[in-house]
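Batch manifest, entry 17 of 40.
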Amino acid sequence: MKGALAFPSHTPDCSATGIRSSVDQALSILGDVKKIDIFELARIDPDVDVVESMKCLKELVAEGKIGGVGLSEVKASTIRKAHEVWPLTMVENELSLFSRDDIANGVLETCKERKSFTRIICLA
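Output type: structure tokens
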């Protein structure tokens, strides 16, 4: 599940308050579901250090609200920085015949280095 977006602007809100609000709202909508398998930040918030966001996500895993953590549209350096706080379960970046940047910019190599990933999603 993707989240941590402020509405109605659809801008990232990866503050602890924004992340918790997004997770709690999702769980409320899902009803009987007690845990989100993977919660993914839809975008990185330029106003919040990814370390702070990851600390909140780590707490949510410990609380049993989410099972894993994902990031979307990130650079290799962001993946490494985030992974130091908590292992990422997935990274979702675009990779297609028309967008092959992640092959050259180190994102795919960084994902390979992190043995805890269960999914690397490439959107065509």
